[in-house]
Amino acid sequence: MRPDGGVDTLDVLSIPAGHVYTEAVRPLDVRYRPDPDIDGNWWPHPALDAAWWHTRSDADLPDLVHLHFGFDHLSVADTRALVEVLRDRGVPLVVTVHDLDNPHFVDQSEHHAKLHVLLDAAAARITLTDAAATRLRPGARIIPHPRVVTHPPQATGTGTGIGVFLKSLRANVITDPVFYRILARTVHRATGEPLRVHLHEDSRTAHLTHALSRDQAAGFLDVRSHTPMSDDTLHAAVGRCAVVLLPYLRGTHSGWLEMCRDLGVDVAVPDCGMYVAQADDPRGVEEYITGDPLDAARALIHLHEQGPLPYTGDRDRQLEDIRQAHREVYREVSGR
To answer: What does the alpha-carbon distance between residue 76 and residue 302 come to, in Å, rounded to a whole number?
Structure first.
C-alpha cells in the first residue's frame, strides 16, 4: 500500500510474458517484467536457472513468479533447485498447467516428475479445464482459455471446406501419409469435399507434401504448401472451413481449438487430451480415437453435415473475468 492509500502495481515475473496467451490474461493493473532477448527468443528463460536468483538483490525480486511453459530443458533436479531458491528468497510461485502431457515428448515420465515438483511448491495452481483439474491435486483453480482471434474476418462462420493445418509438423502431429489418404477418401466419399491439407514449405514437410501431392489428381486431397501465414491470413484460411481436424497424437489443451471456435468453425479433436472440455458448445467439438483415420473421418463428416456453429458466449466478458481471476490469485499469493 502506498502512503497515499493507493495500491502499488504488482510486479510479476511471468514465464513467458510476451506470449499471446499471457499477454491476453494479464490484468491491466499488473506489470509483467519483459522477456529476455536470447537470439530473438525468450527461452531458455534465465530465471529458470536457480543460479540467476542468487545474483538478485532483495530490491530486485518480483512479487511472484508465474510459470506457464518453457521449462522443457530443465531436469527434475534443476526444477527442485528452482523451487528451493524461490522458497529461500520468499518469492511465491504460481503455476498454470497448460500441458498435463507435453506434446513435444513421447515419454512423459520426466515431464510428469517436474510437474509434481512444481505443483508441490506452488502457492497457487491453475489449469484451463475442469477435466484437467480432476487430474491435479485438490485446490487447482480453473481459469479458461481466452479468445485468440480479436478481429475475426467478415466471413466468419460461413466456411464450407474441411481442413487440417500441419504447419511444420510439430512433434505431436500425425505425419503418416496413409492416415491422410484414408481420411480424405472417406470424407470425400461422404461429403464431396476434398481434404484441404495446409503445410509449410520447408524441409520438415517435404516428404509428406510429396507423398500427398501425388493424390491430388484423384480429387479427394487439396494440398496447399505455403510459407508461414500472418495471423490475418491464417484466420481467413481457417474461416473458409466449416470444420477443422486437430491431428494430434498427444497433448492437453489447444489454442488452435479456441481459434477455430472464435471463427465459428467446428473442430474434430483426438481423445488423447482435454480438448472436448474446452468446448464452448459440445456440438461444436467432436472427439475421435487418436490416430484412427476412419474415426477421424466419422467426426469430420458428422460436423460437416451439422454445419458450422457460432461461438456461444460473450468473449469480451469472459476475458474480463479471466483477468480478474488472475488478479485475485496474484493478490492472494503476494499478500497484496
So the answer is: 44
Domain(s) labelled CATH 3.40.50.2000 in the chain stretch across: 161-306
CATH of domain 10-145: 3.40.50
What is 161-306's CATH topology? Rossmann fold (3.40.50)
Q: How many helices (H) and strands (E) does the chain have?
A: 11, 12
> Tens of pLDDT along 17-53?
999 999 999 999 999 999 999 999 999 999 999 999 9
Report yes or no: 119 and 93 within 8 Å, Cβ to Cβ: no
Cα separation of 45 and 300, whole Å?
Answer: 40
What's the pTM?
0.94
Residue 307 Ramachandran class (φ > 0 left, ψ -120 to 50 alpha, else beta): left
Query: Where would I find the H helices in the chain?
Result: 20-25, 50-54, 76-89, 109-121, 130-133, 177-191, 206-213, 231-239, 255-262, 293-306, 315-334
Which three cell numbers, joined as nine digits, stand for 153? 474476418
